[in-house]
Amino acid sequence: RRFEFRFGRQSTATMALRRASLLLLGHVGATSAVAAPPPSLCAAGGAAVGTCSQVGFLGWRLCPAAPSESQDCMMLRGEPRSDTFLLEALLHSHADLPEAVFTHIREEMVLLERGGARECDAHAPASFVPDVNCSVPVLGPDDPSAVKFDPQQDDRGCFVNQQSNNNCYDYANDIVTNTFAQPGRGSGVCPPHTRPCVPHTCDDVKKAAVSDGLVWVGADLPKDLPARGHYVSLHIWPNSNFHWLRMDSNKLWSHKPGGSSVRNVDNNGKIISDPSKADVSPWSQHCGYLLATPSKSTITMLSLGESPQALIV
Fold it and tell me: So what's the pLDDT on residue 260?
């Protein structure tokens, strides 16, 4: 999930930073909690990274409050005082989260603070794409041969420019909505601001996605491209949230964990050829595959007259 903590002007270090988002990636809902960070909160943003995870808890992301300044976000991770403060704020504001979520965060915080024993390639997100129109929705192609892992070109580069407003379900469907789309919300399975829209089980999320226009394919790995649309893979962190991957034209898989950047590797830094065997823990349960066709999918409720920001809940 993504959680927001709104900070006042407490010190020089925090003057320009008003929103902190937890990079716990998958199904996302943002809420707010007022808190006053210690003056040294941002002092150690360059701490060593001790985890190679691509999904799950990766650290804390601090962003300016104004959406237009979202490219100025910075990461905090591996600094015990900052980690402890933000975790305490999360515990206070989201006490109803499953204990498994907090256990996972604590485990990853330990790895981050130790610096870790493994070396891994740093994931370099694509650069901001200038002079593009990201008015939503931005639909990708129905032609499966045109679905490519190319963040700066895919959907006009809007998964880069609007990174923090789109999640794994947006990316898997190849539709930029700027709403952090939730399975079932676009087709009216739940009211716009319900969180979660459906229980986090394979069956419930699959049915919600089918309601949105996706087509259930089955548990077997697709070997060939479909005639139209593209395949997606559904993964569940039991009782916590969901994650989706997308099959590209080269028959390899890519994904966009929550509000983070698009990538084509798993937690071990391996190219993904079989999602059922990829390490995307803690999304440990592989549910199967569906067919997504951008022109037929209904994953946003913008047609009901709500602004994109109003639906990021």
Answer: 87
Residue with tokens 């491209």: 225
For residue 299, which of 163, 175, 168 has the smallest C-alpha distance? Answer: 175
The CB density around residue 117, as the number of other CB atoms within 10 Å, is 7
Give the Cα separation of 102 and 118 in Å (integer).
23
The type of residue at 182 is: Q
pLDDT < 70 regions, the chain: 1-56, 62-74, 114-125, 301-313
Instruction: Return d(Cα 182, Cα 185) in angstroms, integer.
Output: 6
Residue 13 contacts residue 42 (beta carbons within 8 Å): yes
Q: What is the pLDDT of residue 125?
A: 67
| Residue 261 CB neighbours (<10 A) | 15
The DSSP secondary-structure symbol of 214 reads -
**3-state SS, residue 113:** helix
Predicted local distance difference test score (pLDDT) of residue 71? 55
User: Quick count: other Cβ atoms within 10 Å of Cβ 202?
Assistant: 16
CA-CA distance, 40 to 48, in Å (whole number)? 17
User: Under 8 Å CB-to-CB from 162, ≥6 apart: which residues?
Assistant: 134, 176, 178
What is the layout of strands, in order, in the sheet containing 215-218? 215-218, 285-292, 230-237, 241-247, 253-254
Say if residues 206 and 216 touch (Cβ distance below 8 Å). Answer: yes
CA atoms within 13 A on the CB side of 253: 30
**Alpha carbon 284 to chain centroid, angstroms:** 16
State the distance between the two ends of the chain, measured CA to CA, in whole angstroms: 10
Radius of gyration of the chain (CA): 18
Q: Which helix (H) or strand (E) holds 230?
A: strand 230-237
Structure tokens at 20: 């902190």
Dihedral sign for Cα atoms in the order 81, 85, 86, 87: positive
Closest by CA to 248, choosing from 161, 148, 108, is 148
